[in-house]
Amino acid sequence: MKAKIKKWLRNPKVIVVLSVFVLTMATIGVSYSAFLSVKTSTGNQTITTGTLNVTYTNTSENPQDEAIQKTNMQRMDDDEGLKQSDARYIFIQNSGTLPANYFLTVGYDMANYNKLENKKEGAELTPLEYIKIAVFEQTTSEDGEKVNNLIAGPVTLADLTVYSADETDDKNNKYLLLFDSINAVEDATKTYVVKTWLSAEATSSVSKSYFYVTSDIIAEAAETRVTYNFTGKLQNSDGTAIKDATISIQNNSKIVKTDDAGNFNIEGLLPAMVQDNVTYAGAYNLDIITSDNKVYSTTFTLNKGETQSITERQETQTNSQANMKISTAAYIYGTTINKIKELNNINELSTNYPLINQYKVPKTYIITGTDTEDLGTLTITLGEDDITSIALS
């Protein structure tokens, strides 16, 4: 697997910037007191492919600070986590001549965790279910004031689809937080403010855990491969149009509203990338929020193939791999850890729970496009409590 990844990283069409920010919390005490060290990479990281030059900088309000020391760490609910002052800043600049697409992924910071000496006996990494994260996009108002707009989260890492999976050690998995693009117009820039915290649902069972989280930005020239666009219609089971509903893909990476006829348009979705039979990205969360704030959720995987199609998948699997981790199943079937846990009534933490014998796969969809950007029309039908069908025409 490692050899395959190294070969993929050498692909000149792909731009990869690793470890944009590292969030490290060592040893959560029984009272959840902790030392939090947020380390940043030094200087700009610039990778150029042809005429594309994308620069990633991790900075803060005080760029000279390389760490934030935090004592008496407490569990936080979402409101507290969003309002906290501790944050890291990601600055993305495209000073080249080509637009770029990029993914922001998160996962365990195994590089720094493996260097940690004198680990406490029995200590493990903080379970994915208890790691909360949120991303704000920072803009500047007309009067020069900086404004942070929440664009992703708060979510746990267990709520995210799997961007890439390590067959030998699932602690090396990467989870997709968001995706976006950046133009190459007069040094186009984007600034993200990232906050992370220990979930209020964390129990004393993780009192010895280590909170080590890192994020990668993976980017490529926009012309490297096809991106898909589709029109759509949202309706009830009787065919009645659903207006004023919000459709969100991957934590508001793409977000649109339906019109009075239930119609919507979504552009710029990247399919999965396959290198040496290893699949990267392609699986997305789909959330629909109706005007009365009812939420419908599923996932779909977007592939490039020979024939345009859509397939619904929901089935019971007989586990053929001994002690398969839930995260591995989430990767294989294009879903999330928490969706598998919920469907199978699993209360144990995913880090300690192997899938044994039979387990159910949450309903998910596989959408296949061709070389043409237009995917056609998606008709999404909502039932009383769930998405009953998605059809492609």
Q: What does the model show?
A:
The chain is mostly beta strands and 393 residues long. It has 2 domains: 220 residues, no CATH class; 117 residues, Carboxypeptidase-like, regulatory domain (Immunoglobulin-like, Sandwich). Helices cover 9% and strands 47% of the residues. It contains 5 helices and 28 strands. The strands form 7 sheets. It has a 6-stranded antiparallel sheet with strand order 2-1-12-6-10-9. The longest helix has 8 residues. The chain is globular, with a radius of gyration of 21 Å. The N terminus is likely disordered.
Summary of the model, kept short:
The chain is mainly beta. 9% of the residues lie in helices and 47% in strands.
The gyration radius over C-alpha positions equals: 21 Å
Low-confidence stretches: 1-45, 63-72
Proportion of beta-strand residues: over 45%
Query: Which percent bin holds the helix content?
Result: under 10%
Note the gap between the termini.
37 Å
- Average pLDDT rating: 79
General form:
globular
Number of domains: 2
What structural class do the secondary elements suggest? mainly beta
Total strands: 28
Q: Give me the side-by-side strand order of the main sheet.
A: 2-1-12-6-10-9
Largest sheet: 6 strands, antiparallel
Number of helices: 5
